[in-house]
Amino acid sequence: MTNTERVLRIAVAGATGESGKTMLAVNLAVAVAAAGKKVVLIDADPQAPMVHRHLGIEMPPRNLQSFFGNEVSGLYDAVVPSGIPRTYLVAGWARDRSQVLKPAHRMRLLRHAGRLGAQVVIFDCGSRANPETLDIFNLCDYRIMTVTSEPTSVRSAYSLIKASAVRLLDQTASSSDDIALINRFLLAGGTLRLRESIDGVQQHNPEFAAALRHAISNYRVGLFVNRVNHTQTEGVGFALSRLVQDYLAFEPELIGDIFESPLIDDSCQRGRPFLADSIYCIEGEGIRRGAEIALKLTGSFDTGEAPPEADWGQTIRPQRPVATDSTTDAIRHYMRRHERVPTRWRARIHVEDASSPPGEGDLLDISIGGAAVATQLDVTPGQQVTLWLVDHEDQPQLSAVVRHIHRRGGYRIGLEFVGTDSMRVALDLATEAKTLQIAEEKALQGDDDESASEEANSDVKARPPVPPAPAIPSLFSQVMTPAPAPKPTPEGPTTAPPPAIFPYKPPSAEPMKRAALAAKPAPPPVPPAIPKRAEEEPLDLSAFDEPRPKGPQD
To answer: For 341-428, which CATH class?
Structure first.
């Protein structure tokens, strides 16, 4: 490869300092290198350069500080091997906020990065929306943003993407009139919606508005959601993507989720990328998908096709203050998920514009916005599919787009319904499934109550019978008791009882009285009588009535 050929530049930025951007950049370089490409990692984080620690090596003596201080002739002299095949490193330079790279230094870094002889160069950018980070992030061919499920991380990611998009449009201006329109419509206070702002520019300068639409349409950003630990956090990337699409007029690409795993934590502590030891582990599924995107972009460079738009010769002006708007309510709106109702329907999935036959799967849950399907059909995010419920009475069909693919704990895909008709059908299906769910819960509750009563009855039956209290025999009860009636036999008619061997004689009253007296409970014992105290002689108190002689105290 010659130095004149195009090099794919990828920028990895993070919403916060703990979003995992450095871990992602290092493992993405390992995945691309495993496919046979030569990769150079450039640590461009001005606050916390940590790429060398994730690779398990010490800070090299030659780094970006040597390059910007003219201690080396070029960036190539600061490249060191990382210990992983086909992966190299240019270490960073920790500096304070006052030591900001000038626009000329940033352009020099990007120019020298294309002369290193590598097919892919990955920049580990900072996590702050400063001019240095935004320029490197915007001037790369492909941009990746890492975010976690924390609300502050989602808000910071949106703010960073918004600042980079506004700076990109700001740099599109070529005259003072264009700058005035940018200041009026894009940098004004209030909630920023790029479509409405560009429509405002359209009324004054249609050509400049067309240039703004072209620049924002070619703006590509991929999203990685890091530290996904349960099902509720799997929709964070989709919520952020919809938020950016509605407010900033472009749709970020959902690359994948990185599940929280002890393997990743241990690799960060050991200073060894986890994909370097197990390239096909399930934790690296999303990172491998990002490497596939990079390889496709690299292939477009090799075949001579037009790469994604990136203006390499534009003049970078100092950053103007960008108007900040509160996005808390908008983020909460998009983070609020519709109720997912579990179902048991069988579904058939037909992928549009694909030669593969339709696949079948189980519809796990459904809502007005989307559904989850357990299937083995090979699909990719962004594909248009048709969902057909084959075992439903009406056999409805819904149009959807593949948004998520989860292979942890079983292969299932997340779908987003497209169109008002599909959403109405989904609402009816969700209502029907909810009704069935409530009926099943009531039936189960009834079975539980019935089983509980049966258990109580069985418990009562299992207890030994309480012996009846001894009845006091009565003379009249024995004398006047009639003889038992003859019982019917199953074999024939009722038969009279056989004659008694001994004739009946009424008993005498004397033994009955003795039995009744014996059955009566004994009366409680009478407490012994308290003996009377002996009479005592009265005390003679006449001595106390006499006056006593006065003492000195009187």
So the answer is: mainly beta
